[in-house]
Fold DUF1059 domain-containing protein.
Amino acid sequence: MRKITDCREFPSETHCTLAISGEEDEVVRAASEHAVSVHGHTDGPELRKMIRDSLKDDIPQHA
C-alpha cells in the first residue's frame, strides 16, 4: 500500500503545502531530504522515525 505524508499537518513558518506519496521507504527518504533542505531539520534516526510514524495510507481518489 502506498503511503503519504503532508507538510500541512505540521506547524511550519513557511506554511509548506508539499505532500509526498509512494512506497514507505521512498516517502521516508524523500520527506527527510525535504525536511532538511526546506525546514532546516537535522537528518537522522529520530527524524526518520517521526516521519515513518506519521505516514498514512494513500487512498486513491479515482473516479
Summary: The mean pLDDT is 92. The longest strand covers residues 3-6. Strands lie at 3-6, 19-22, 56-57. Residues 2 and 22 are 5 Å apart (CA to CA).
